[in-house]
Amino acid sequence: MSSISSFVNVDYSPQQKARCVLWYVETKSMIQTQLPYNYRANMIGKMNTTDPLCRICGNMAEEVASYNVASCQACAAFFRYAEVENEVLMCEGGYGTCDVTQLNCGYCRFQRCLSAGMTLGCWKWQENEFLPDPPTSDSSCYSQHYSIPENTISRNITSTHSSTHSLPNFANAEDELLEKFSDMKIEGHHLKFDTDIHMNEVVQLLNKPYKGDKRKSESILGSMISAFRSMIPEGRSKNIKFIRTIGWKDYMRFVMSHLKRIAKWAMACEEFANLPLEDKRQIFLGAWNHIYLIERVHRSVQFLGENFPANSTLFTDALAGNLLDTDLYEPEIQPEILERINTQFKPLYMYSWRNFEKPMRDLKLTEFEVVYICFYKLWYVKNIKGLSPETRRVADDILEKTSSELHQMYLEELRLRVYSIRLSKIFDTLTSLEDVLRKRQEALLMSHATGVMKTDLDESEFMSYFNDYCFSK
């Protein structure tokens, strides 16, 4: 795991509720600063607890709180080394849930340090704020309710490239998220709705003229980062709910609405907006699945951070859950059918987590990198049939320009003279994503054949590229 960026942590102890919530306030880059050992003395304060045990490993704690948390000398030294030296850590067990009392997994030990509230930065105290108890085994749909403080910030490096031109406003009235779903119904194991309505809306979005100003000196990726930040209409929800079950209809509504956001994001690129409509349509159909999954993993890290249990995934803008332990549910579906649906797709979720989501999280991608790989998937048109020669020329030119921008970001902002290994790992995750999508299509085909689950989306034009491409391999 690279420590190029790390994320906000909020004080939480599994043994007891925190007496306060700690917010990280970044005043200077901790990544490029080598702190002297005696800096630790400035980060020590009197303990405000009667608990004599280390909040990390459970051993006897020191008489003073190291880095703001009651901890033993060993855990304090470990945290300082991992934070300052950017030590690369990987989970020994692969799930981020190792027993740190045995001190056998550096990754899980470091995550426990962060979640307990350890920090080398400056801090301020918010009194009378408490985090909720951890999720229970209650299977009710909205059993837990996690609030993310509005002023919690991410310790994620973001690009200084900026765009000054106006962009499509994704938060305006025309972005109606749940429109035209009145016809959605379930018959047995089949979720039915009119996908043509949604395809027509996507085509209308792609057919609109470019709304931004003509670019002058701002970078291509700079403008796409601004559009990426505007993709969520309401921004980060203040009240994200941790769930154990999610409604099948609710989830499908979000998927269909979110792919329209992706279409709007793509139209923020002037070169894309100026392509022939049919070419834009084919490029979008080939890329939206990739962009959807990449964006969801990034938002999960960005919006949830350390506030939520390990393996938490943001399913919608306001609903999160453990990817490996969240079931689909609809009251009108027979329990035995629901059981078959959830059982059959669990191996796919596990494969996706191990081979794509966790590796991508471990890389701790900057926002610039996330937007770059989304943009790369949009413009990588080698396997898309029927595009005009001019469109392919534009795509090659765009990829060359954005690769140069990424190169400059690594050299000038992250100060990485050698980044080939990191870039190789990033593209490895994209290869794994292709495998995940292919296995998903195979699982859907099997579920259709066995009468387990089917949606009209699976055989719609939205999935035509993946049905053709995945099964041609």
What's the quick description here?
InterPro entries: C.elegans_Orphan_NR, NHR-like_dom_sf, Nucl_hrmn_rcpt_lig-bd, Znf_hrmn_rcpt, Znf_NHR/GATA. With 473 residues, this protein is an alpha/beta fold. It contains 13 helices and 13 strands.
Walk me through this protein's architecture:
The two termini are 31 Å apart. It is globular and about 70 Å long. 43% of the residues lie in helices and 10% in strands. The chain folds into two domains: 48-121, Erythroid Transcription Factor GATA-1, Chain A (2-Layer Sandwich), CATH 3.30.50.10; 185-469, Retinoid X Receptor. The protein has 13 helices and 13 strands. It is of the alpha/beta class. Strands 5-8-11-10 form a four-stranded mixed sheet.
Report the CATH C-level class of the largest domain: Mainly Alpha
- What count of structural domains? 2
Main β sheet profile: 4 strands, mixed
* Fraction in beta strands: 5-15%
> How would the global form be characterised?
globular
Strand order across the biggest sheet? 5-8-11-10
Query: What is the overall number of helices?
Result: 13
Order of helices and strands: EHEEHHEEEEHHEEHHHEEEHHHHEH
Q: Can you tell me the CATH superfamily of the largest domain?
A: Retinoid X Receptor
Question: Segments where pLDDT lies below 50 for 5+ residues?
Answer: 1-50, 122-179
Cα separation of the termini: 31 Å
**Total DSSP E strands:** 13
| Second rung of CATH, namely the architecture of the largest domain | Orthogonal Bundle
**What is the name of the CATH topology of the largest domain?**
Retinoid X Receptor
